[in-house]
Amino acid sequence: MGLFIAQILTGLANAGALFMVASGLSLIFGVTRVVNFAHGSFYMLGAYVGYSLMQVLPGMVGFWGAILLAGIIVGLIGVIVEICVLRPVYSAPELFQLVATFGVILVIQDLALMIWGPQDLLGPRAPGLKGVIRIMGEPVPQYDIALIVITPFVAFGLWYLITKTRVGTLVRAATQDREMVSALGVNQAWLFTGVFFLGCALAGLGGALQLPKGGADLLMDFTILGSVFVVVVIGGMGSLPGAYLAAVIISVLNVFGVTYAPQSTLVLMFVVMVIVLMFRPFGLLGKEEIAGEHGQVGEPERPIKPAGNRVRWLVAAGLLILGLLPFYSGNFAVVLVTDIMIFCLFAASLHFMLGQGGLVSFGHAAFFGGGAYAAALFVTYANTPMELALVLAPICAGLAAIVIGWVCLRSTGVYFAMLTLAFGQLLWSLAFQWGDVTGGDDGLVNIWPSDWASDNDIYYYLAFVLCIGGILLLRQAAHAPFGYAMRAARDSARQAEAMGINTKRIQWVAFTFAGIMAGLAGGLFVFSKGSIFPNELETARSFDALIVVFLGGVKTLSGGWVGAAFFEGIKDYLTRFEYWRLALGLSIIIVVILGPEGIVGSLRKAGERFGILKVPEDAK
Amino acid sequence: MNRNTFLKTLVGAAALSVTGLAALAQSGEPIKVGEINHYKRMAAFAEPYKQGIELRLEEINAAGGVLDRPLEFIFRDDQGDPGEAIKIAEELMTSEGAVMLTGTILSNVGLAISSVAAEKQWVYLAAEPLADALTWSQGNPWTFRLRTSTYMQAAMLAEQAAKTDAMKYATIAPNYAYGKDAVAAFKEVLTELKPGVEFVGEQWPALFKIDAGAEVQALERSKPDAIYNVTFGPDLAKFVREGTTRGLFDGRTVYGLLSGEPEYMEPLADEAPEGWVVTGYPWYDFTEEDGANKTFVDAYQARFNETPKLGSLVGYMTAATVAAAIQKAGSTDGDAIRQAFEGLGVATPVGDITFREIDNQATMGAFVGTTALKDGAGVMTDWTYLDGADYLPSDEEVAKLRPAE
């Protein structure tokens, strides 16, 4: 019994920092609709800033003052980020801002490394709270008790701010309909900035509060991000009590998981999330999402048309230059371009369902890595030749997509995205944990192409044919009646249904088709590298694809592969420099600000302005 | 100038420049080595390693280089991503003119490079990755490993544990291949040395996501006599703090794999645990009697104005090994270097090491000692250096573990 209570208390203490970070994310999303990937970075900054302040401020007052100050400072940093990076891109398509926040992550990572150095910092202990108290014989650290007490106060303060004050009323109004709020004369820009301050300050506070239980290190931005998203979604986007409830549930369950099923900790919270979303598609205390692509900000999307003759010639010339690459360039260029083409196919497959179908997936790597693993497993255990494995990879990925799509498509919007994330994570942990079959994180090695294709140049042509073919096929599908049905389902599900389109089935097929193409890319990947590791199933890989799709331009047909080629190319170049993350992050931010319609969309616009491209009649 | 003369001049000039280059190559063209590591993702570990390499390179080149040519390392960041590392390996070997590859800390990246090295017949010296698979189950003729493997270090600790009366052990290790290998090896060797020991609890926190309070409660619940710890980095710091606060370590000996390395000990400062039996690197304790160890530590501190980590030593030994291998090969030909590595002897700060012909593992050992607090910092006391050669399975067993060549 004593142990049981002690375990619950441990869980409650852990819930503290988690709740603060999650509530900040939830607030920001609710009002600005920005999915702030950089939220983990603000948490990390909170820890570092708090650490530095505690070195200068002495005693008990200094300690708590440092935590409070850390929150305020991080909130101000958030304001700078909001004004400089996010304000210029609020009018861009929904979720585009997450590309900008991705750039912010990279910048903060390198700045933190520059300022605080590479070594982990151990957080100072709280003065006066260093010991334990005994509850029914079980030791419970005093600081845990402090956290258990503080968290509800913060939660209550937030609740009061949101429900009882004028600022809170405005925030709630903006959450429901921000156009209406600004029409009523509220300065929306400063409301957004204010919310960003509050959200980032909460993240910073969370980071500083956990110092006595850990410290500051350069990996903590990503380590918390997953659990924060899970908490926000389980609680219901935008719901503060929901976030608190979810943080407590996840933390307490985790403590029991550690004790009674120690291996389960990798997936436990994702399993919980899938179960919750199966029964409550909008989280425990969330409300149905009203907004969405329908009637959103920005220019309406243009109807899709086959490319004009000029563009066709351009593409043909480009393909010719690419096709002759092995004849005029060195071996490494061939290897690099093979890599890029594979990533382009992967990105194009995500772009297809995201751009045409409006299905934002946070877990597309499940199919890329899934295809790669399928090929690798067939080669390792059945000695399958490469040719057959390259057929089986997309088939297996497609089968996975059928199952995963069936579950995920029960939800929509951000909840759909989070379900795909959860499945991506489940697949990852399967590959990670099931060491006897998948080799765990030691992966599967020695998976090389058949003899005829083992030369880099030959493999280049194989990848060339399959990747370019795949991208053209995806493009063809967008022009086919199926593509029209997808866009109808995306833009107005109700009208599409009324016209006799089974929107769910259309989306399901699109999801599967995208999965198949990602699986093909994965199959090509594994034979080009000769090995496969769980990294290819990680959420980071899904986000890579997501970033480049937005970077290239969602509302264009070629955004996926253009963004992918740009991103991979610039990354390959920049990683040669010491502070490449800073440079890459800044480049992303600059591209995002200069071209809020993505690379392709902005180039098209520029081309039209300078008379290089013809402006279509219906866009005039 | 008519066309024929022009062409002849051109050919002549080309021929001249080619021979000129060849001549230059013999006198001063540097020998390049491709070094791939996670310089950003694991900066705390990779930087000291890089400095170790640089220190040794400066010494080598000041003494005339290798084969009368300067030795040069090309440092590249792979972001900790195996696919990226393979791409970089390709670039280094085919367009940068590297003669062999070194590097990596993460085992999966090491395995990825080792696989491509075998396929393309490039020599790869895996400097820091610890996975047993690298030289055993996934071993290949082109991959050599410098650092003391997981098995060897776990065996050293198991030997210490077998000397005590403790019978009930609990383990805590990060939930990935390294942690699993480390626990399996410890169990295997300890059970062999002391049949009857019992493993009463196994904890597997996710790497860098430890819920330290819960882990400590779970370990306490299994009431072990002793604890075997494999966690490291931020996980270790959290585990130590919660464990100390909640009294988990009172009256129990803890065996900590790598826990004594300065990389992990220094961040703990005055909260470093006392009385743990660990593998590590007690650079602060070296005296004149320790000879080369002391020389290296002094040179490193003089050059970089900071204290060495274990990574510094490994980096230093990596550069020394590469130089020795190329010197022995007498050329920069890949196959010649590979043959030179078989049975290669290298003089290093910790003594002479040999690359075993049977599994391409170097016999580098480890320092084993007991932790204590001294002047507000964790140190190792009563340490000894154990030779790695004594902590490897018998040749017959190794032959069974490794795929036939």
Annotated CATH topology of the largest domain in chain B: Rossmann fold
Secondary structure tally: strands of chain A? 6
Main sheet overview of chain A: 2 strands, antiparallel
Task: Work out the strand percent of chain A.
Answer: under 5%
| Biggest beta sheet attributes of chain B | 7 strands, mixed
Structural class by secondary-structure content of chain A: mainly alpha
Mean pLDDT of chain A: 90
What is the general shape of chain A?
globular
Poorly predicted spans of chain A: 291-297
How many angstroms separate the termini of chain B?
Answer: 60 Å
Give the C-level CATH assignment of the largest domain in chain B.
Alpha Beta
Coarse morphology of chain B: globular
CATH superfamily of the largest domain in chain B: Response regulator
Q: SS-based structural class of chain B?
A: alpha/beta
Rg of chain B from C-alpha positions? Answer: 23 Å
- Mean of pLDDT of chain B: 90
Q: Tell me the series of helices and strands of chain B, N- to C-terminal.
A: HEHEHEHEEHEHEHEHEHEHHHEEEEH
- CA gyration radius of chain A, whole angstroms: 25 Å
Q: Which percent bin holds the helix content of chain A?
A: over 70%
Give a short overview:
The complex is a heterodimer of chains A (620) and B (405). Chain A has 26 helices and 6 strands.
Structural overview:
The complex is a heterodimer of chains A (620) and B (405). Chain A has helices at 2-32, 39-56, 59-86, 97-116, 142-164, 166-176, 178-183, 188-209, 220-235, 240-260, 268-279, 309-323, 325-328, 331-356, 365-382, 386-408, 413-433, 435-438, 456-479, 481-491, 493-498, 503-529, 539-552, 559-574, 580-594, 598-609; strands spanning 121-122, 132-135, 138-141, 215-216, 444-445, 531-532. Chain A is mostly helical and 620 residues long. In chain A, a hairpin with a 2-residue loop joins strand 2 and strand 3. In chain A, 56% of the residues are buried. Chain B is of the alpha/beta class. Chain B starts with a helix and ends with a helix. At the A-B interface, helix 1, helix 4, strand 1, strand 3 and helix 10 of A face helix 2, helix 3, helix 4, helix 7 and helix 8 of B.
